[in-house]
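Morning run. Coffee first, then this:
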Amino acid sequence: MKAFRFTLEAVRTVRQRQENDALEEYSRALLNRQQVLDSLEMIDARIGEDWSHIRRLLAGGCNAAHAAQAHHFHRSLEKQRDDCVAALGRAERRVQSASHAMLAARQQREMVDVYCEKQHAAHRRLEAREEQKLLDEFAVRRVTAIHASQTS
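And here it is:
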């Protein structure tokens, strides 16, 4: 009997590689999004601390220059937060894009796997038919041999 050989093994290998690459890209996108989220949390914490600082400054009575400086610093923190929120939006879009690419790559690989299974099933059916043919041939020979010995 002939061993099973998938005719599209090279395509299968390419599709598996594409799926792995897409999965790695998705992982990188998730990691990047998490880093941006961590940065956003850090900036939010700094803004909260800055509000507390400004309240203490104003409650303690400060001059206008200190208040303006504190306000300017707070606005720079808010700008950083806005930039971080924009970066988070871009990171979310990259995650979505990478997710779609990963799913598409998986579907492409699964299509090749399904074809491989169909081809393998056809190979098994052919082997079973050939084996049955051999068994039938052996049975016919045995019956012929028995019949020949009885007639002699």
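The helical segments are 9-60, 64-151. Good start to the day.
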